UniProtKB/TrEMBL annotation:
Keywords: GTPase activation, Metal-binding, Repeat, Zinc, Zinc-finger. One of its GO terms (molecular function) is zinc ion binding. Residues 519-626 form the PH domain. Residues 1-105, 116-232 form the C2 domain. This is RAS p21 protein activator 4. Residues 301-466 form the Ras-GAP domain. InterPro entries: C2_dom, C2_domain_sf, PH-like_dom_sf, PH_domain, Ras_GTPase, RASA4_PH, RasGAP_dom, Rho_GTPase_activation_prot. Pfam families: BTK, C2, PH, RasGAP. One of its GO terms (biological process) is negative regulation of Ras protein signal transduction. SMART domains: BTK, C2, PH, RasGAP.
Amino acid sequence: MAKRSSLSIRIIEGKNLPAKDITGSSDPYCIVKVDNESIIRTATVWKTLCPFWGEEYQVHLPPTFHAVSFYVMDEDALSRDDVIGKVCLTRDTLASHPKGFSGWTHLTEVDPDEEVQGEIHLRLEVVPGIRASRLRCSVLQARDLASKDRNGASDPFVRVHYNGRTQETSVVKKSCYPRWNETFEFELEEGSPKALFVEAWDWDLVSKNDFLGKVVVNVQRLRAAQQEEGWFRLQPDQSKSRRGEGNLGSLQLEVRLRDETVLPSSCYQPLVQLLCREVKLGTQDPGQLIPIIEETTSAECRQEVATNLLKLFLGQGLAKDFLDLLFQLELGRTSEANTLFRSNSLASKSMESFLKVAGMQYLHGVLGPIIDRVFEEKKYVELDPSKVEVKDVGCSGLHRSQTESEVLEQSAQTLRAHLRALLNAICRSVRACPAVVRATFRQLFRRVHERFPNAQHEAVQNVANMDTPVSRAKEAWMEPLQPTVRQGVTQLKDFIMKLVGIEEKEELDLQQTLNLQVPLVKEGPLFIHRTKGKGPLTSSSFKKLHFSLTTEALSFAKTSSSKKSAFIKLTSIQAAEKVEEKSFGSSHVMQVIYTDDVGQPQTIYLQCKCVNELNQWLSALRKVSINNPGLLGSYHPGIFRGDKWSCCHQKDKTDRGCDKTRSRVTLQEWNDPLDHDLEAQLIYRHLLGVEAALREKFRLLSGDTEAGTSTTGPGGAPEDSLAQLLHVLQDLQEAHNSSLVNLTPTERHHLLELQT
């Protein structure tokens, strides 16, 4: 049994933000943090107080996370970016919205005393005495404290308050991972306070000390237990009233927390086998379950169900059969070829998910370089005369204003060039299109021809509704693009015919060739640290190389086309983690810890260009190495410089690490490895939610008042398959209930809430 948590995040837009620039505007973007760790940065929307982002993310993370925060920032080119405000959603808040938190919420001021993070390791004891017992508090160490100084670290010390007395530890300079190992004692008398306060502070020489967080210990509970030891999460100081709410603008968000308890694979086998059998039968048996599942699934969640089913059948090698079944069902209720896949059906949603899962990497490979070039050129483009901005052109001293007609003509030329480049790239990519996508398109093409033999090319002729009668521009100012669009229609028709025209034998040979290749997970340029010895470590000590991550190794070379100069076996990777900002003067450095050919631990440091690239690489590395037997539970977020670790100041280079690894924190991508058990669990969860509708359907089909009594084998009446499904759901529910025995009372209550 394993617990999985994920966050679905959609950052929609902001409104009424305060102006941070002298122009009376701002350049806002969002940073998303989970427990104070940055995981997402949105694009910057320039010169606006009402930005629209519309960005979506899915994050997998441990069930123990506490909060997700959204910081709205103003980007500045010449100074540090300004913080406009934030929205914080706790885990409890998200758990109280099973369908997701959605709507506008006010930004609040960012108070330094509330920006705390990290944990402190304490040993607490009640020591009996002759006259009175004594309360003993041992402050051992802390980890992941907030950095308050410009060097990217802090100078932490701890204050312990009890019964009017205060004692302090020594100060540990330049560390967010300090170790103290100091003990304090207080007398316990009748009427003594019920709480012990442990506060972490950052020491400053010339200004006031910065608050790092606190722990409040219940002394009565400690007296009953006599002793307690462990890591305690630091809490903020919320004694001050909240300021700034309502005058910093608002943020529109959609955030959904999903917790799943995933059972062992054997528990899901009856459900998987039943669904697979139905797909293999196709439309031969009028009692298959797929139409019933579609009928009982609301339009609101049909996309999610389609994605889960598609991934489950992909894992079973039945994606093509599943889609073929849906094609036949869709064609059976369609009277015209050109209305196919226009409805909110399971077929249209499954096809959409299939193309994303199977074709996203192909799409990025074909169109990515062109789109990147468009952004890099940063050319001004506008065809609408009412929106044209006339700008100065020419060299210094010879400025002249462009005319409106010049701007429009230049924009049209630029757009035509981009459009031609995109069309040419698509039409040259027939062989690059994944074999499973081509095979699925070919099967769809055949099914349409069987259903509409006299209109077999109609769907191709109406590509994207761009046939001659309807291809006229809706806006007159789009007319300059129409010749290129009409030429593109001809190109795309030819592309589609080539795509579905490859013979099956040729397809099979190509697929076998592809199977011999190692799948590429991620690639791109990164900067690798090359300096050795005891000299200063700076960002200038990094060299740019091209990295490729496959399911076998992480390799790197000077360029993408050159022979790989070095590689790290995937099975030898022990951790992929972030590096403290102070180590290299950059917050976008990660480390890959691995063992070399003789079993010795090694570390390479890689610098990324932004927080998004950093987290994408960390996610990819963690996903492909998640099942490695030698994964580390702790690591050093700093570097070993001179004779000690920069993070915790320990002098033993083989020290086990001062922070916990975060191997479960990943960003979801369409090319993620399939998680068969999770997909089966999500399908079970959905079917459990519509169980009442399934039982009602069974009663209508069988005329029986007691659902779930039939045990007829495959190929029987419609109600037989449905009865088996109801039995499977009941068995899975019993398995989940049995798993509650091994949970804590809090976990048990939370899981029961999830299942109701």
